[in-house]
Design goal:
about 15% helix, Rossmann fold, alpha/beta, UDP N-Acetylglucosamine Acyltransferase, domain 1
Length: about 210
């Protein structure tokens, strides 16, 4: 069976492993160090980052939920491994959207995710279970969209944003997309109805800046 490398040994990495299995791959997990390797207590092969040279023939993703950490791993191994995408077979796409996504690298799409139409996705994004991304959305690099989130049409999400579980991002317009700035966290269950600053935390219904 073909193999697929997954950086990380946490829950997000194991979820990525489930997607790899769904796609017909055997996941190979990559531990940061000996301590992380020793703590592994789940099925599946684990190797150390230091031994990554033995696995260069396979594609990789980064199964680490923290956006900044995922970015550091991507930078550290740029040019050393080939980053590909993991897309669960139950994910669905509007016309031409699958090809748009496959043009990126390091993207993880979990079970039940829906992408509609004309969506721009950055590299190394994670789209978790049953999230919905609607038309004309622009998403930056190293973004995480948590389970059950809804991103309505004409929204722009900056780099390294975290959209919490069950959050709703209301719709912008063709001329004025609702913008969420870089590095911003939207809390679980929040409802965003207006633009959000970068480097901030928003929560509540409607969402208000709390940090």
């Amino acid at each position: 069976m073909k193999r697929f490398g997954i950086f990380g040994t946490s829950g997000m990495a194991r979820e990525a492993g489930d997607i790899a299995c769904d796609m017909g791959y055997t996941p190979i997990y990559v531990a940061r160090d000996a301590t992380e390797l020793a703590a592994w207590d789940f099925p599946g092969e684990v190797v150390l980052e230091a031994d990554i040279h033995r696995l260069k023939d396979m594609p990789f993703v980064i199964g680490i939920g923290e956006n900044a950490v995922r970015q550091k791993v991507a930078q550290r191994f740029a040019g050393q491994v080939t980053f590909s995408n993991l897309i669960h077979t139950s994910a669905t796409f509007g016309q031409g959207q699958r090809a748009r996504l496959e043009d990126r690298q390091g993207v993880i799409v979990a079970a039940g995710v829906r992408f509609t139409h004309h969506i721009q996705v950055g590299d190394f994004g994670i789209f978790n279970q049953s999230a919905t991304i609607a038309h004309d959305v622009v998403i930056g690099d190293f973004v995480l969209i948590a389970p059950g989130s809804i991103v309505s049409g004409n929204v722009r999400i900056g780099h390294r944003c975290w959209i919490g579980a069950g959050a709703v991002i209301n719709q912008g317009t063709n001329d004025n997309k609702l913008h969420i700035g870089d590095n911003t966290v939207i809390g679980s269950g929040a409802v965003v109805i207006r633009p959000c600053d970068g480097d901030a935390v928003y929560a509540g219904v409607p969402a208000r800046r709390i940090k």
